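Checklist before submission:
- one chain only
- standard amino acids only
- sequence pasted in full

Submission:
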Amino acid sequence: MFDDPESIAILAPHDYPTFRDMLGNDIPDTHNEWLNLQADDVRQLLQAGRQVQRIPINPHEFTIFLRSRGAVANIVSLRDCAIEKAAKGGH
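Returned file contents:
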């Protein structure tokens, strides 16, 4: 069994166009498609016995995260941002 829950980045519908601009083809064209993919991912994680924690991320905090690490915006850095926020107790 895994100890740490899997952190899933939650993107608000009103922020999605900004994330789409930042992440390009790393995320689907629409927020609804993003939600469907996330639902599939969460379902697979839960079936595998993992715990899931949903971490809201906004464009501002993601930009700060990227700048502080000299990182590029991609799906991996978005996940890393959610993991770090979760580790700091952010929900």
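Reviewer check: The chain has a mean pLDDT of 94.
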